[in-house]
Amino acid sequence: MKKENIYILGIESSCDDTSAAVLCNDKILSNVVADQKIHAEYGGVVPELASRAHQQNIVPVVDRAIERAGISKDQLSAIAFTRGPGLMGSLLVGTSFAKSLAYGLNIPLIDVNHMQAHILAHFIDEDDHNKPPFPFLAMTISGGHTQIVKVSNYFEMEVLGETIDDAVGEAYDKSGKVLGLGYPAGPEIDKRAQLGNPKAYHFTKPKVEGLGFSFSGLKTAILYFVQRETKNNPDFVKENINDICASIQYTIIGILMDKLKLAVKQTGIKHIAIGGGVSANSGIRKALKDAEQNHGWTTYIPKFEYTTDNAAMIAIVGYLKYLEHDFSDFNVMATARLKF
Asked: What is the CA radius of gyration of the chain?
């Protein structure tokens, strides 16, 4: 007997990208993302502008996702949406729309934890991507989060360590701002780092016990370094931008890899999966591949389109929850600081 297909519409609106995706079981049929260019001129996401843009984008984005999937909205089995964590105004737009559509179609509503979705994106069925076996370690690195998580099964996750102040993505963006680079600065620093000497300048790694992270001290050290050198040579940054970027990236990757090595030592788990926007960084990807050779790890790196905020990762969690009949009440509320 042929198994009936399950169609999940995923909606993601936790920050500044409005996204909708449709899955047929665990396969992607569409994944549409509308980004918000307006934040670049402010050097960071402006919450009020983000929520207004979500209101403008969500209907056409959802409509396009369903159209590209080649189905009608009446074929949808359930609607999954990001409940949190994220910007409250942005989350409210996605939550309200998902509730309304699910109610109108009389189908189940499924709330999703954004951080779990970054991890479970690895279980989207792709021909050229291996899925990590349980248990595995997940490192989620983005503009708002830095975590190492022990994943025992789809919904049993334990945070082993996380940042005590700033996230790694923020460290990239704030460092880029000091250097006069645009927003977001992470991709530009990564690009320039490949042209520079990673050991040209030394930045001290923060001393944080256990598996915790800290990046605020590193940001301050980079700021003072640039101010000092620019005082002696006004053209210092312009003349040495590639070496500065390479040295910053070398330090950040060193911090991340040191913590991952400690996590492997403490747990004995050598299956490592990464997620989040910063996991698109070429230096981090290379460091993980090198670790396969040097430490006997098996690493799982998602496709670029599943690293930044996207609805495909929300939809796959929705599918896995649907199989468990884990549905949400329509009174469910968005939560800016949602924990695991």
From this structure: 21
- pTM greater than 0.90: yes
- Phi and psi based region of residue 106 (left: phi greater than 0; alpha: psi -120 to 50; beta: remaining): left
Which of 32, 74, 54, 126 shows the shortest CA–CA distance to 314?
Answer: 32
Note the pLDDT tens digit of each residue in 52-97. 877 889 999 999 999 999 999 999 999 999 999 999 999 999 999 9
Q: Are residues 69 and 187 in the same domain?
A: no
CB 151 within 8 A of CB 136: yes
Same domain, 160 and 203: yes
163 lies in the same domain as 270: yes
**114 and 263 together in one domain:** no
**pLDDT tens by residue, 286-324:** 999 999 999 999 999 988 889 888 999 999 999 999 999
Q: Examine residue 2 and state whether it is found in any structural domain, yes or no.
A: no
Assess whether 269 and 317 both reside in one domain: no
Structural domain range at position 30:
7-122+307-323
